[in-house]
Automatic annotation (TrEMBL):
Cofactor(s) required for function per UniProt: thiamine diphosphate; Mg(2+); Mn(2+)
Gene designation per UniProt: menD
Protein's name according to its UniProt entry: 2-succinyl-5-enolpyruvyl-6-hydroxy-3-cyclohexene-1-carboxylate synthase
Record flagged with keyword Magnesium: yes
Cofactor descriptive note: Binds 1 thiamine pyrophosphate per subunit.
Keywords recorded for this protein, A-Z: Magnesium, Manganese, Menaquinone biosynthesis, Metal-binding, Thiamine pyrophosphate, Transferase
Domain Menaquinone biosynthesis protein MenD middle, first and last residues per copy: 200-403
Quaternary structure (record): Homodimer.
Cross-referenced InterPro entries: MenaQ_synth_MenD, MenD_middle, THDP-binding, Thiamin_PyroP_enz_TPP-bd_dom, TPP_enzyme_TPP-bd
Pfam families (UniProt xref): TPP_enzyme_C, TPP_enzyme_M_2, TPP_enzyme_N
An MF annotation (GO) of this entry: magnesium ion binding
Role: Catalyzes the thiamine diphosphate-dependent decarboxylation of 2-oxoglutarate and the subsequent addition of the resulting succinic semialdehyde-thiamine pyrophosphate anion to isochorismate to yield 2-succinyl-5-enolpyruvyl-6-hydroxy-3-cyclohexene-1-carboxylate (SEPHCHC).
Record organism: Pontibacillus chungwhensis BH030062
Length: 577
């Protein structure tokens, strides 16, 4: 058998096996050494192949797609630094628990560490940030090796999903010539309807006696909280709010918890808890005896400060699988179980506890006072927080809101009030970076989801290459760029007091005309300066096709002062109630 036939059958069986396991999408970046993988993926009719020339952007694009689809997406690149450009997205995927199949082409062993071009050490190059690494065997076409390559493909797919999802890395050494022959008979190896290793996933359950033990502990107290941090399970909001109603406890709902929006009951949802807890004086009035938390640690810093100030608070953290996400450093009881199953088991198997009803009312009254202050609009000047208020008012009944890090996610935390709309909130909060956000949002929009991206000007600048997806694939995406000429979040930090070095080191104004970039990528651009202009632009953007960018220019110093004024007003209202 010739080299070309051996190569073709080996790679074709690998690609076909991924299809059998359920892979539907692959993001390809051009390169020579990856030719066997790229051409074979493109040849398979059951795979959507997306071509992205920038590997860094390609990986974030796949990340956003996998996040929205909640299933693995493959990425393919050539050897050398092309693979290294995947690194930021792989780190994000690892910490945000998103399944990716990282497939890197490599030089064969005889061309490694001998000065050959485009050859770097790719063995375990992503370290602990992948769940599994495999250096693939050189292509062979024996029945044994075709079973081998199918086994590795199936294992990679299921490993990316097993327990906490995440990226896996397979490294493929290929010898030249690299062009496959698709005229071969039985190209896909006589594939069946079931994958080589078929995996069945069961629900991670909790035994009633575990909940009985937790209940016996918390029943000794009067003041409890249910906290729902960032998470993506669409079934959890109903279960969590039902548990809260059953126990008559408040639910502190992070904006990425999926609890603030939807048709479920929200009487117990406290969406303004970050604003309530901003004041140290007020915070001392809302210290609970115990907390039952679902999802990751909430974005809110005041919540985290409350935990740090009160390590005596009993914590019960429900995690679907392994993980110790407790950055406050306090003691916690970890319950490894499906969150919905935990809530349902408690509600269905045990009598309701009797906690302090006045505690719930106290939180609900504080929430109403905080919301009343937050929605007050003092004038015509565009304020960053109220930009989110306007976006959420104009938002369609169903869609996804993708939010950048630094100030935008914090303003979403403050200004996203509960709504019956079905708004899915997404963000790259694994590593909290400002890179790759544009690409991730396009990935989330790749299959027709109505996505609106809100981010700052620095984050936008970091990923301008991501805009190429609009022109390349004709995707629809609305982007609101909040341009405060630099890193607005630093205006809230102690660095702002050091005027000599603040602007060049932290403020970092860019003074760029983004309209020219949008034009280059074939998008529609508008700069708005009033609330009426913003509302009209948002309305037009939801009717438009393709890329639509709205730029909102604000002042960093005025923004910081405006936020502090809001927090002071809330503090005063809560102390005077």
């Amino acid at each position: 058998m010739t080299h070309t036939e051996t190569l073709t059958r080996y790679v074709a069986n690998f690609v076909d096996e991924l299809v059998q396991t359920g892979l539907t999408d692959v993001v390809l970046s051009p390169g020579s050494r990856s030719t066997p993988l790229s051409m074979t993926f493109a040849e398979h009719e059951a795979v959507n192949h997306w071509i992205h020339v920038d590997e860094r952007s390609a990986a974030f694009f796949a990340l956003g797609m996998a996040k929205e689809q909640q299933k693995p997406v493959a990425i393919v690149c050539t050897s050398g630094t092309a693979a290294a450009n995947y690194y930021p997205a792989i780190v994000e995927a690892y910490y945000s628990r998103v399944p990716l199949l990282v497939l890197t082409a490599d030089r064969p062993h005889e061309l490694r560490d001998v000065g050959a071009p485009q050859a770097i050490d790719q063995i375990h190059m992503f370290g602990q940030y992948v769940k599994w690494f495999e250096e693939m065997a050189l292509p062979e076409s024996s029945e044994e090796m075709l079973r081998y390559v199918r086994s590795k493909a199936a294992r990679a797919f299921y490993t990316s999903l097993d327990h906490n999802p995440g990226p896996v890395h397979l490294n493929f050494p290929f010898r030249s010539p690299l062009i496959p022959d698709f005229s071969l008979d039985h190209l896909w190896g006589g594939s069946s309807e079931q994958s080589f290793h078929h995996a069945y996933h069961g629900e991670r359950t909790v035994q009633p006696e575990v909940i009985e033990e937790i209940k016996s502990r918390v029943d000794k107290h009067q003041k409890g909280l249910i906290v729902c941090g960032p998470q993506t399970d669409q079934d959890l909001p109903v279960a969590v709010t039902q548990l809260a109603r059953y126990l008559q406890l408040p639910v502190l709902a992070d904006p990425l918890s999926q609890v603030r929006s939807g048709q479920h009951e929200k009487d117990h949802v406290i969406e303004s808890y970050d604003a309530i807890l901003k004041s140290p004086t007020v915070r001392e009035q809302f210290v609970p005896d115990f907390i039952i938390r679902f999802g990751a640690m909430p974005i809110s810093k005041p919540y985290w400060l409350m935990l740090q100030d009160h390590p005596e608070i009993e914590q019960y953290v429900v995690e679907s699988y392994e993980g110790f996400r407790e950055p406050s450093g306090n003691a916690a009881s970890l319950i490894f179980a499906d969150g919905k199953h935990f809530c349902d088991t408690w509600v269905n198997h045990f009598e309701s506890s009797f906690f302090d009803v006045e505690w719930l009312k106290k939180w609900q009254e504080a929430n109403q006072l905080a919301k009343a202050t937050l929605i007050e609009n003092e004038g015509t000047t565009l304020s960053e927080g109220h930009v989110f208020s306007e976006i959420l008012k104009s938002f369609p009944e169903e869609g996804s809101l993708f939010v950048g890090n630094s100030m935008p996610i914090r303003d979403l935390d403050t200004f996203m009030l509960t709504t019956p709309k079905s708004i899915r909130t997404l963000a790259n909060r694994g590593a909290n970076g400002i890179d790759g956000v544009v690409s991730s949002a396009f990935g989330a929009a790749a299959h027709g989801e109505k996505v609106t991206l809100v981010l700052g000007d620095l984050s936008f600048f970091h990923d301008l290459n991501g805009l190429f997806a609009a022109k390349q694939f004709g995707l629809d995406l609305r982007i609101v760029v909040i341009n405060n000429e630099g890193g607005g979040i630093f205006s809230f930090l102690p660095q702002a007091e050091h005027k000599k070095h603040f602007e060049p080191l932290f403020g970092t104004p860019l003074a760029l005309d983004y309209s020219k970039v949008i034009e280059m990528y074939g998008g529609q651009y508008e700069e708005v300066g009033t609330w009426e202009q913003l509302r009209n632009s948002l309305s037009r953007s939801y009717e438009a096709r393709g890329l639509s960018v709205i730029e909102v220019k604000t002042n960093r110093e005025e923004n910081a002062a405006w936020h502090r004024q809001k927090w002071k007003q809330i503090e005063r209202a809560l102390l005077e109630r």
